Amino acid sequence: MNVMRDVLASQAALAEKKAREEGKGREECWKTRFHIMPPAGWLNDPNGLCQYQGKYYFFFQYAPFSPYGGLKFWGLYTSEDLTDWSYQGIVLYPDSPWDCHGVYSGSAFTEDGELELFYTGNVKLEGDYDYIDKGREAYVLFTKSRDGENYSPKECLMGMEDYPRDYTCHIRDPKVWKEGDRYYMVLGGRKKNSQGAVLVYSSWDKKKWKYEKEITTSTPFGYMWECPDLFRLQGQQILSVSPQGVPRQEEAFQNLYASGYFFVEEDTGVEAETFREWDMGFDFYAPQTFRDDKGRRILAAWASVPDTEKEYGNPTTEQGWQHVLTTPRELRLEQGKIYQYPVSEIDSLRTEEIPVSQREDIWLEQPCFDLEIEEIDSEEWEIAIEEDCRFSYKNHRAVLEFTGTLGAGRKARRARIDQVKSLRILADTSLLEIYVNHGETVFTSRYYPNRKERQISLKNLSGKVRLFGL
Ligand code: FRU
Fold first, then answer.
1. Best residue for ligand 1 mutational test, from 71, 103, 105 (most atoms within 8 Å of Cβ)
2. How far, in Å, CA of 280 to CA of 444, rounded?
3. Which is the closest atom of ligand 1 to the Cα of 72?
4. Has 45 been annotated as catalytic?
5. Distance from the CA of 106 to the center of ligand 1, in angstroms?
6. How far is CA 106 from CA 29, 109, 187, 365, 367, in A?
7. Buried-exposed string 58-87: b where 16+ CB fall within 10 A, e elsewhere
8. Which of 169, 196, 242, 333 lies deepest, with the highest CB count within 10 Å?
């Protein structure tokens, strides 16, 4: 019996019931239709993404008691097709001495019919600490299931004494995979000299882990790297991280914290100059990838950035919830770059095709749409969605811009793009994902129109246009 768990479970059940009841009779025009949102309160990172017993499992960082965050749990959604998600409840509670201040991020590994979870247990000591060098403990915890519903007692696999001495207490977010007959784990960390880095461990049995090496840049690239993921795409090793502390620039690293990837050459480090950002919009962080049984490498991210509330917000907090996950995206390596394609299952959400005239504004009776433009041949153009959102291209620069209250404080994000040949805009009620050149560059952003209808206008944008309701 775990009293802590029972208390947390009944409080969370109450919070979710309240959210369901309040949601009912109310016009919730920002509730997403095909993007994962929290049943109540707050959501952040995608965790433990995998396919298990024929279903997709998407766990997520979940703080059910408040739309502004708080104590972290793992919630779970499952789906057969990556579009229609059903909530399965809370799977991990902060109910042990190793994770009493938060069940932090981690990953899933499936083998021999088992679903195994590796995650960070966060413990904050009481006292006068800086919580960087002292006062915080981060454990690597483990639990497994044979049915996806019942999980074994938590086991602690690593603690502070297992990490290198030149690291602060900020070490977290294990991602586990297998190569040959050996298992590997990466952890993200902050070194004592305020340099972000990744720790690599190996194991023969997934229980005893041996420190192998560190991966970082020769000069610091941010002070902390969160949510690492090391995987292969057509044989090429890729390291994805979300670095904090990279100086902001006009057309790069425009968000408070960054997120992107390095190509890793065997046995050498990684270099800051080769880092590529995953997304150029306002809302993208902490992505995680997994391989499914079709052989696809699929990425999903948190459609937000931590600590940005002073710059821009999400008025869904007034309705008791905050944040969503991005559309799952298939990654493909083409000509030395990673392209992000919305998984093809999304196409099945398309309802009727809506006729488009490029001379007149397009009026949609529903908020969700999929706009595709191929063979673009103008050098300078603009798309407006509602009055106050503009996506434009001029002098090889794409700009996503909000005015008024539509972006809830979001202003502009830019990206250098040599030539724009195609565009796809996937719009959910309160989320825009703009895929340029088949996902060569992506802009992800929340937005908050106050009505169900949408008005779209294309200015000087010639090409093959197709528009679908979703
Ligand atoms: C990233 C992150 C992770 C951590 C989790 C806690 O958004 O800070 O590093 O494990 O969120 O919710």
1. 105
2. 7
3. 12
4. yes
5. 9
6. 32, 10, 9, 40, 34
7. bbbbbbbbbbebebbbbbbbbbeebbebee
8. 242
**Ligand 1 surroundings by CB, under 6 angstroms:** 44-45, 61, 72, 104-105, 120, 172-173, 226-227, 285-286, 306
Q: How would you class 307 by CB atoms within 10 Å of its CB: exposed for 0-12, middle for 13-18, buried for 19 or more? A: exposed
> DSSP string of 4-33?
HHHHHHHHHHHHHHHHHHHHHTS--TTS-S
Q: Kindly report the pTM of this predicted structure.
A: 0.98
List C-alpha distances in Å: 155 to 54, 85, 143, 158. 27, 29, 6, 9
Q: What angle do CA 247, 253, 256 make, to 5 degrees?
A: 70
Structure tokens at 43: 């959501």
Beta bridge partners of 269: none
SS3 of 380, please? coil
What does the pLDDT look like over 205-262, one tens digit per residue? 999 999 999 999 999 999 999 999 999 999 999 999 999 999 999 999 999 999 999 9
Percentages helix, strand, coil for the chain, rounded to the nearest 5? 10, 50, 45
Catalytic residue, candidates 6, 45, 361, 428: 45
Count Cβ atoms within 10 A of the Cβ of residue 318 and give its class: 0-12 exposed, 13-18 middle, 19 or more buried. exposed
Of ligand 1's listed atoms, the one at least distance from the Cα of 105 is 10
| 3-state SS, residue 3 | helix
Strand partners, 76: 59, 89
Q: What is the token pair recorded at 125?
A: 């000591």
Token digits of residue 320 = 């008791």
How confident is the model over 388-444, as pLDDT tens digits? Answer: 999 999 999 999 999 999 999 999 999 999 999 999 999 999 999 999 999 999 999
Q: Are 140 and 156 in contact (CB under 8 A)?
A: yes
- Rounded CA-CA distance 244/222 in Å is 5
